[in-house]
Design brief:
Elements (H helix, E strand, L loop, with lengths): L10 E3 L6 H31 L6 H18 L2 H10 L3 E2 L1 H34 L4 H4 L2 H28 L7 E2 L6 H5 L7 H34 L4 H30 L7 H25 L2 H23 L2
Parallel strand pairs: 1-3
Antiparallel strand pairs: 1-2
Helix pairs in contact: 1-2, 1-3, 1-10, 1-11, 2-4, 2-6, 2-10, 4-6, 4-8, 6-8, 8-9, 9-10
């Protein structure tokens, strides 16, 4: 079925759905994760923009994180699911280029944004009196703009180079989307210089933001340790540990994919780790960062209360 509609420039994916015995279950799980991620992030954005109590720098940044998560899971998962239902695995050269660019731009923006969000938490806990100045509306917009600029720069820099290489081997990508390391395995030209450039980009986009996250949370934990309230310490440690777990897994999986030499990679490991930070992380972010938060749950309860109360109000006007 794939070959009948393919052209000489099309690629095919090996995909995640291997054996027929497990493909149905895996399809169901990924579908549930995808719909849950869209719902959870969509609720977060709606609550933050409609509830005045959430009009703070932290939630402003979180709303943009949710938007990025919705965008980049949508660049990969819908096609994968539809192709599985249709029994197809092909993607055009233009489609692969677009997917590669959007993925790099969006995930790059998230790398920067997560690092700067850790700085927001550091200022809020360690320098609360200066928080309104250091995280003003203008500064928040600078953080958002800088994150998108960094991600876009990565996409515009690496995508044209990646897709301009000659693909003189099999055009079957042993992956489930057009991720650079998987695409490069099909290239027959020397990619040493390109891989050096990619490594430099990863230092900028992964190691530096991750270092900011580590440093910020280290300072936060030091400050929290000095707190007199035992309950306050427990709550802060629980929050910081859950944040650090997700961020470490997110950055760690990306570092493995992009910074570890090819000899240490296997296609199966690459697909599992890529699935974690492209499919699972967009669901974990709203759960860990936001939906466990009392402010957000309070806003959700108020919103549900308004929805339940609106028919009664409408009925009383007649």
């Amino acid at each position: 079925m794939d070959g009948s509609n393919m052209t000489s420039t099309d690629f095919t994916f090996v995909g995640l759905f291997g054996s027929e015995e497990t493909s149905g279950l895996l399809f169901t799980i990924i579908s549930i994760i995808f719909l849950s991620a869209l719902t959870a992030n969509g609720i977060m954005i709606l609550l933050i923009h409609t509830d005045p109590r959430l009009h703070t720098p932290m939630y402003f940044l979180l709303s943009h994180l949710s938007f990025i998560d919705m965008m980049y899971i949508s660049t990969i998962v819908p096609k994968m699911l539809v192709d599985h239902l249709r029994g197809q695995r092909a993607i055009s050269f233009v489609g692969c280029t677009a997917q590669h660019f959007l993925y790099l731009t969006l995930v790059g923006a998230e790398f920067f944004l997560l690092g700067l969000m850790a700085y927001d938490r550091y200022v809020a806990i360690c320098n609360p009196l200066r928080y309104p100045v250091l995280l003003s509306r203008r500064v928040c917009w600078m953080i958002i703009t800088g994150s998108w600029f960094g991600g876009s720069l990565d996409g515009f820099l690496l995508t044209p180079i990646t897709m301009s290489f000659p693909f003189c081997r099999s055009r079957e990508i042993n992956h489930f989307f057009c991720e650079a390391p998987a695409v490069l395995k099909l290239v027959c030209a020397d990619t040493a210089l390109y891989e050096t450039v990619m490594y430099a980009c990863c230092v900028l986009m992964l190691l530096i933001p991750f270092s900011v996250v580590i440093a910020s949370y280290a300072r936060i934990l030091t400050t929290v340790h000095r707190m007199s309230s035992v309950e306050g310490r427990k709550k802060a440690f629980a929050t910081c540990s859950s944040h650090m777990m997700v961020v470490t897994l997110f950055y760690g999986a990306a570092m493995y994919t992009y910074m570890l030499p090819r000899s240490y990679h296997t296609p199966a490991q690459d697909k599992v780790l890529s699935a974690f930070y492209t499919i699972l992380t967009p669901l974990l972010n709203p759960l860990i960062y936001s939906l466990r938060n009392k402010d957000v749950m309070g806003a959700l309860q108020r919103a549900l209360g308004r929805i339940k109360g609106s028919p009664r109000v409408a009925g009383g006007t007649f």
